[in-house]
């Protein structure tokens, strides 16, 4: 006899609506998982970058301890080579990984000079991951009164001319003076990345190939900075390059004053 289906038996097949609900739930869980993984990876890269700037800060402190002055942004050597602040710190560290010349056409830079979260534009080879607070706040290219660490009157005679170095006693508040950070410069909310300078600058700053967006993506809207006393912080880019409060501006300058006169050329 043919077996007749009992109409009372339940049909356990999934309906189209139920399948769509399951797919939607899986998609939501996958998106949450991907976000979590991305955040964890970003945090790991930021920690590595923090370790890099901390080591650079330690090298700077050793240099200051030996010379009682901060490295110049760059100087001309008698043999006509240019020694940058990176080269001075490399000598202090006892390594020769970084060339003692201006930025060379190679990327990424080796070792502690490379931020693993930095992603330069395609084809960019002279990208610099870390910058030195050489000038502090600088309103115009003709400004000869440097407020940073790279030397007095650094604009006079061009960047390559020697300038009297900044004595360690000239930094009023070492724990509040930014020294080395991710290679950003800018002001009024516009940021240029990939520079060997770390400064607030209101002139000549353009959003190069989406540099502001790229800068915000590097460490989820933050930057890693080592201060003159050696401690590291990760302030927001908004605080660094858009905030005009005394607390934000004074950290750029060795006299620990906001210098609002330099907010515009």
Textual characterization of the structure:
This protein is an alpha+beta fold and 265 residues long. Residues 156-160 have low confidence and may be disordered. The chain has five helices and ten strands, in the order H-E-E-H-E-E-E-E-E-E-H-E-E-H-H. The chain has one domain (16-262). Strands 3-5-9-10 form a four-stranded antiparallel β-sheet, with helices on one face. Strands 4-8-6-7 form a four-stranded mixed β-sheet. The radius of gyration is 26 Å and the shape is elongated.
Strand content: 5-15%
Number of helices: 5
Strand order of the largest sheet: 3-5-9-10
Based on CA atoms alone, the radius of gyration comes out at 26 Å
State the shape.
elongated
- Report low-confidence residues grouped into runs of 5 or more: 156-160
| Ends apart, CA distance between termini | 99 Å
Main sheet overview: 4 strands, antiparallel
Order of helices and strands: HEEHEEEEEEHEEHH
Number of strands: 10
Please tell me the total number of domains.
1
Mean pLDDT score? 82
Which structural class do the helices and strands define? alpha+beta
Helix content: 25-40%
In short:
The chain has 265 residues and is α+β, with helices and mostly antiparallel strands. It contains 5 helices and 10 strands; from the N terminus they run H-E-E-H-E-E-E-E-E-E-H-E-E-H-H.
């Amino acid at each position: 006899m043919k077996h007749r289906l009992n109409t009372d038996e339940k049909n356990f097949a999934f309906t189209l609506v139920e399948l769509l609900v399951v797919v939607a739930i899986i998609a939501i869980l996958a998106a949450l998982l991907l976000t979590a993984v991305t955040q964890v990876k970003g945090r790991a890269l930021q920690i590595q970058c923090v370790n890099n700037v901390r080591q650079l800060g330690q090298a700077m402190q050793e240099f200051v301890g030996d010379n009682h002055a901060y490295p110049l942004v760059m100087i001309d050597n008698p043999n006509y080579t240019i020694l940058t602040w990176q080269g001075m710190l490399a000598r202090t560290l006892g390594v020769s990984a970084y060339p003692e010349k201006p930025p060379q056409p190679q990327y990424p830079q080796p070792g502690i000079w490379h931020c693993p979260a930095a992603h330069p534009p395609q084809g960019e080879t002279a990208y610099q991951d870390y910058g030195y607070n050489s000038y502090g706040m600088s309103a115009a290219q003709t400004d000869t009164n440097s407020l940073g660490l790279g030397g007095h009157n650094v604009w006079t005679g061009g960047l390559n001319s020697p300038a009297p170095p900044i004595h360690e006693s000239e930094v009023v508040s070492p724990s509040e003076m930014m020294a080395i950070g991710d290679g950003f410069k800018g002001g009024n909310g516009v940021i240029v990345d990939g520079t060997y300078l770390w400064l607030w600058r209101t002139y000549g700053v353009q959003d190069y190939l989406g540099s502001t967006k790229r800068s915000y993506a590097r460490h989820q809207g933050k930057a890693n900075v080592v201060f003159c006393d050696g401690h590291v912080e990760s302030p927001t880019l908004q605080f660094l390059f858009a905030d005009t409060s005394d607390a934000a501006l004074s950290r750029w300058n060795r006299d620990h004053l906001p210098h609002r006169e330099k907010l515009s050329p």
